[in-house]
Amino acid sequence: MRIIGGTARGLKLAEIGAGDPAAHLRPTSDRVREAIFNLLINGKAAQSGDPVRGARVLDLFAGTGALGLEALSRGAARVAFVDDGATARALLRRNIELMRAMGATDVWRRDATRLGPNRGPGYDLIFLDPPYGLGLGEKALASCIAEGWLAPGALVVWEESTAPALPGGITLIDQRPYGDTFITLARAP
User: Fold this and answer.
1) Selection from 75, 64, 77, 10 nearest residue 37 by Cα
2) Of 52, 134, 135, 169, which has the most beta carbons under 10 Å away?
3) CB 174 within 8 A of CB 36
4) pTM, 2 dp
5) Mean pLDDT throughout 154-166?
6) Who's near 176: CB < 8 A, 6+ residues apart?
7) Distance CA 103, CA 105 (A)
């Protein structure tokens, strides 16, 4: 795994091989990450400008942190990573160190499906990459909405094995399959 664009382009991230099924680590491939950022920066989500540059990013089910770190490399202002797995948080901290991004990141040990109330401003860009097929993405997005984690007009990038059902108020922007991964881009009201 490596950062594929921006200021840290080419940076090799910590190795985890094919992932860690016991820890529910299934890293987003470079190819799918590239597709996600192409959709964000060049697709329908970019109609009012680059949605990544200057964004406050919330990376739920962060795992290795590759999605949030990619956003940081491409100009995001700050990234908050949420994962409740010890293995994932250790890899995530290592990747943050490799990128020298300690001052622009937060790592929170939380259950992404029960975030609790947000005490700060909402996030502009949310990455959802839950373990596939368990309904955790739906619960996490519901928690984000109920607890004030989404800024008005926030973009949601959801990676799942099938096209997820979006809750009311969330508007579909684009959905595309990439191998065994389905990418959904949506916008909060």
Assistant:
1) 75
2) 52
3) no
4) 0.92
5) 93
6) 35, 39, 182, 183
7) 6
Q: What's the distance, Cα to Cα, between the start and end of the chain in Å?
A: 34
Looking at the chain, which runs of residues are DSSP E strands? 56-60, 78-82, 105-108, 123-128, 150-160, 171-178, 181-187
Q: Round the CA-based radius of gyration of the chain to a whole number and report it.
A: 15
| Other beta carbons less than 10 A from residue 134's beta carbon | 13
Cα–Cα dist 173/186, whole Å? 5
Q: Which of 89, 75, 82 is nearest to 118 (CA)?
A: 82
Neighbours of 51 (CB within 10 A): 23
CB burial of 169-188 (b: ≥16 within 10 Å; e: otherwise) equals ebeebeeeeeeebbbbbbbb
Q: How many residues does the chain have?
A: 189
Question: Of 157, 7, 3, 15, which is closest to residue 69 (Cα–Cα)?
Answer: 3
Give the domains, in start order, of the chain with CATH numbers.
Answer: 21-187 (3.40.50.150)
Helix, strand, coil fractions of the chain, as percent rounded to 5: 30, 25, 45
Q: Which range, of 24-33, 121-130, 150-159, averages the lowest pLDDT?
A: 24-33
Q: What would the pLDDT profile of 164-189 be if each residue is shown by its tens digit?
A: 989 888 999 999 998 889 999 999 98
